Amino acid sequence: MTHRRPLIAGNWKMHQNVAATSALIEGLLAEDLGGEVDAVVCPPFTSLPHAAMLLTGSKIGLGAQNCHWENSGAFTGEIAPAMLVELGIQWVIVGHSERRTIFGESDITAARRAKAAQEAGLAVIYCVGETLEQRQAEKTFSILETQMAGVADLDPTKLVVAYEPVWAIGTGQTATADQAQEAHAFLRRRLEGFFSSDADALRILYGGSMKPGNAAELVGMPDVDGGLIGGASLDVGSFSAIIRASADCAVGD
Ligand code: PEP
């Protein structure tokens, strides 16, 4: 089995203006973030240029929270992948459940965004996850299967999948380590169907109320390779504690 180095990504959502971005990044840069782990922060668009400047030469990666599928055009309010690349950004989150439920993102548009982002050179964090209603109706795996369809077309070397059960996002209710592992193992099998042995190296993150106290247990599961962190990524102490707890948790050689 391939050793998968854990990845902890912070989704700052619509928080942190430029001044707050400076404070948070400077705080993180002053922390010992552990060795065997990758860390990424995803501030709002307006903070990205400043974040890019602060993070130059650091081991913390930088991501955006969305991008469009065209590189220019009449798309009011959208940001092109090439515009992110121009700022030195390496990552982009695509298909987050808040984009899906509040802004009408579909599996089709999420897949288009992801494809264009990769073609521009960005690595994609592709989010999937079921609602509570879907879980209770025992539709979790069929929903994940549908949401994953667009992934087949992507480049596995620039892809991370994030399993984010919607009922666990921002609710304080975390999936159990077994629930997370079950979903991640299912996603790994889908990825194997798309990319055969390359799926083994692909990281699958858990997202949904991950905190310093539950990170090691979750990331210690065989198919959980890190986390996508919302609320807890806005605090230097809790985000850096999650990063440290995840270091060396990866399963494999
Ligand atoms: C998220 O929004 O991706 C997320 C996982 O949020 P939280 O950690 O706050 O549940």
Output the strand order for the largest sheet. 1-2-3-4-5-6-7-8
Number of strands: 8
| Proportion in helices | 25-40%
- From the structure provided, what is the oligomeric state, counting identical versus distinct chains? single chain
What is the CA–CA distance across the termini? 6 Å
Low-confidence parts, pLDDT < 50 over ≥5 residues?
A: none
Q: How is the main sheet built?
A: 8 strands, parallel, barrel
Description:
Helices cover 39% and strands 15% of the residues. The protein contains ten helices and eight strands. The protein is an alpha/beta fold and 253 residues long. It has a domain of 148 residues: Aldolase class I (TIM Barrel). The radius of gyration is 17 Å and the shape is globular. An eight-stranded parallel beta barrel has the order 1-2-3-4-5-6-7-8, surrounded by six helices. The structure holds phosphoenolpyruvate. Phosphoenolpyruvate binds next to strand 8.
Structure described in brief:
This protein is of the alpha/beta class and 253 residues long.
